[in-house]
Design a protein that fits this description.
Length: 205
């Protein structure tokens, strides 16, 4: 369940940060305005907003299952956004001009210019965001609120509940399992994507 929440948080983050990051990176005037605002928003700890967010979800009939995804999203989306902005800014201006001269359509522009340009930066942002989401699950899935403990099924909740109960064997086991999952994902997912970024998605000849 924790893995599913991490994937959901990364997917939601990518859906808005990729187009937003490209738009900001392609427009210097917009970047000068938006980037400082995004940096201020990113500096606010997600845990500071989580109690208010969680109270709102509870009042609407939601629970910690959805709330944990939102907390992961709050804490990790900025890694993807800033990396995509950097990737969009790094695309050479002559390539953008060629795409305009030859009247590339939206799909062709994304396929031949934008995605190859931002892909290495996007992978870096996703790797960082993934690690942050796994760390955030420890708080997101087991939360103290108004003298109550709210929890949902997941590996992060196991770690937090074991800490509360002083069950160090379960704490050690849960921590080792989480570390093993992160290492496996890095080797099976992120490392191959880095190789793709190096060998295929390159703007230089």
């Amino acid at each position: 369940m924790t893995f599913a929440r991490v994937v959901a948080a990364l997917t939601i983050a990518a859906l808005w940060t990729i187009p937003a990051g490209v738009a900001i990176g392609f427009n210097p005037k917009l970047a000068r305005i938006v980037q400082p605002l995004a940096q201020i928003a990113a500096s606010v700890p997600a845990t500071a907003l989580f109690p208010v967010l969680l109270l709102g979800l509870i009042s609407l009939g939601g629970g910690l299952g959805l709330g944990s995804i939102l907390l992961m999203l709050l804490g990790t989306q900025w890694y993807i956004l800033f990396n995509v902005i950097a990737g969009a800014m790094a695309i050479p201006s002559d390539l953008k001009e060629v795409a305009g001269v030859f009247h590339f359509g939206l799909v062709a522009r994304w396929k031949t210019v934008i995605l190859p340009g931002i892909f290495p930066y996007l992978v870096t942002g996703m790797v960082t965001a993934s690690g942050g989401a796994w760390n955030a699950s420890i708080i997101a899935e087991y939360f103290h609120l108004k003298g109550q403990v709210l929890s949902t099924f997941g590996l992060g909740a196991e770690i937090s509940s074991a800490t509360d109960a002083g069950n160090f064997r379960l704490l050690l086991l849960s921590t080792v399992v989480m570390a093993a999952l992160v290492v496996c994902i890095n080797r099976l997912v992120w490392r191959p994507l880095y190789r793709v970024a190096e060998n295929r998605f390159r703007l230089e000849g």
